[in-house]
What does this fold into?
Amino acid sequence: MLRIIIIVTILVLLLSAFFLPRFRRALWATLGVVLSIIAVIIWLDNRERELAHLSFPLTQVELSNMVAAPGLNARSYVVNGRIFNHSPTEPLKQVLFEVMVNDCEGAHCQVVAQEEGRVSMVIPPGQVRDFKVSVPFSSLITLQGTAEWVFKVIDVNDR
It folds into this structure.
């Protein structure tokens, strides 16, 4: 929403400068200030994400009992599992995990699908929660051998 407000403000300033030439100098100064503010907002957002990873390492989140079953259509799967929050102090609010499907023929396996799933729920420190989410895949999964499902935590949000 903030980005839309910023874009509309810039467009209003550009139109004002076009129809009111006296304000062109003020427009350049205003655009410089607006662009500087946008750069600071982006920098602060990136810094907050980096700090979130420092305060909550991915090793403190554990996925277990993970099962994938066909979903509502041919490309979606319902993933059930359990999330452990091993942090002694920090609650967990969101987990982003990767779902990979390997097509295995004997000892040889190839990745045939890879998507991300997101679980949003508050998990207090030292506790566990069961979850169920739908994960849509970008294409149909076709197998020549047997499916091997691999789940891995790739991001967390404790804020």
In short: The chain has two domains: 2-55, 58-157. The chain is about 30% helix and 45% strand. Helices lie at 2-19, 24-55. The chain has a mean pLDDT of 86.
